[in-house]
Amino acid sequence: MLNNRLTPFYALFGTTLLVLTGCSKSYMTVSGNVTLPDSVKIEEGDLPQLVFYPEGKEGTAGVAIYSKNEKTYTCKILPGKYKITMKVDPPMTAADSPKRAATFAPFNKSFDQASTKLTYTVTTDSSQTVDLDFVKGTVTKK
CA–CA separation, 56 vs 79, rounded Å? Predict the structure, then answer.
């Protein structure tokens, strides 16, 4: 039987071990170039959304920061297999928003979560360069 004076110490020690081992998730940096079809012309104010969705039931989606000037992205994400989606919306306040939304619609449908064929498995490498080509439908690790 444990000494009653040491029981709180053991309880604290065990809890600390559980917290430290269970909360040590390491995010990886995935970044690279993005190639879009000529029909997808991103203008000032447009809202491009590049998202990595986990393929399994567990995990959290990773939202990438997309640079339309550089045509690059960066995403902090946990290791695992992901579906890669992209959507572009014009600003709602623009006069030509409905017309531009219609031009983006085929692209958005092709690369939504249900339709995209682009996948990538994030490894435990802390930094990964991965180019996304939405014209060819390819994902290339460099």
Answer: 12
